[in-house]
Task: structure prediction
Amino acid sequence: MIETKGLSRRFGEVVAVESLDLSVGEGEIFGFLGPNGAGKTTTIRMLGGLIRPSGGWARVAGHELGREDEAIRREVGILTESPGLYDRLSAERNLAFFAELYEVEDVDSQVERYLRMLGLWERRSEPAATLSKGMRQKLAIARALLHQPKVLFLDEPTSGLDPEMARLVRSFIAELKQEGRTIFLCTHNLDEADRLCDRIAVFNNRMLALDTPAGLRKRLYGRRVVFHLRTMQPAFIQAIERHPGVQGVEAVDNKLVISLEDPERENPALIRALVAAGADIQFVGELRRTLEDVYLRLLRPQQADA
Amino acid sequence: MRKIRTIVAKEWREVFKHRFVLFTVVFMPLMLTAIPLVILFTMQGSGDLAGLAQTDMPPRFARLCEGLSSEACAQYFLVSQFMLLFMLLPLAIPVTIASYSIVGEKTTRTLEPLLATPIRTWELLVGKSAAAALPAIGATWLAFGVFVAGASIGAPGILVRLLDALWLVAIFVVGPLLAVAAVCVAVMVSSRVNEPRAAEQITMLMVIPLLGLFFGQISGLILVDRTLVLWMALGVGLLDVVLMALAIQLFQRETILTRWK
Result:
């Protein structure tokens, strides 16, 4: 659905996006993470057909960027960082206006459908300025969906929302994936990205890493299992070190932290080895690095390891 | 055309909720129609007019009074000053509407979602321009129509002069051309300014040449006759071509998103 090769954008001397290569499949939720000023919004604007790239190539929803921009804009929906609603127009009129611009067939019924879907039908006649932040965000999402786009660009969809509303929006995004929509999600909420995204790109004017959330953790930190023991003896460490498949062992108080290629395969044998050596195992768990650890390590390697 | 109509309808729904815009669109034409009519009606039958015609009128103006009685010439001299003021309407009204329309979109950040739609930038520019210019042109023509109707009752002697090519070209040709110029300048100013009132005030400087003509005519230095009005039509027409080219340059998707601050 989205494919780029060497996509770049400069503003004078400033390189906002440098040689971006990525591919996003149909029905995928693709996370695009990066700090402020990393070029995420610029990337969305390019892929949404709003601004021209300085170099490279991209295809979005089957249309080539730079040649078929109008066709791209018909096929994509963009939720901008700021909702950008007409405050003096009602919720209904806001949507009807955009439905007309997208040349939606039956404007009234499509507007009603999305207002009801997002729980805004009862407030349809009220000026957008009177709606709460969460409702405005839902209205903006409805606006992005009116014309049934194949690709959705969501820029900080849960920014500033209370936890309940943020959860509702995330659920809605997950439902959109079930419908087969391709979603390009920019967010600073790493937990949200971890939960929702099939793959994540970490970007800071250029691509730093691209993989599934688990793949990113494994690539940067490997996989580590923690054995909580009642007591610690040198024999327990020796029993583990002898075991093939163990990449490293570290003893911290009464805990053994073991780096493994494949914990699911190695854990049973390690447990038997420790029990045979006389260890009392209280608890076994995988030491998960958060996506935040991964993100910060990619952006600032020295600080993340501290 | 559907998208242009959609833009115009949305603009009118939104912009006319601003009291200041409503005030400009309604009050100014009302005032500029009522004042000359009041002058005509109060001066009708007044004995002072004959004296006024001989001593107080600029000599050049006498040329335009060929065939008119002294009283009618005096009436015509007084209401002629309002022709230039009628031409203020197609300048002032679009400036107000376009300033609120364009700067308003900048400050509320509605431009980006709008530009994300398949609408072409020329459609958006035409839509916004039409939304600003059409009420101005309509208000000017309506005000003039009411004025002529009132003059036919209050000063039937000058009615023919009010329907002369001089007035018709001024109102029906120069007026719309001024409206186009006003919109183009408003677009250019709005790209740089972040407050509608500031955009309006800066763009309103366009009225200075018109006011110069107004005071020049009152003082007798200038005579706004057919020749001058035709030159005005030509001059403003050429200016419109230049201004439209500049406005189109500024009103590009990329420019709006990356350079409009």
Chain B has a mean pLDDT of 84. Residues 149 and 159 of chain B are 9 Å apart (CA to CA).
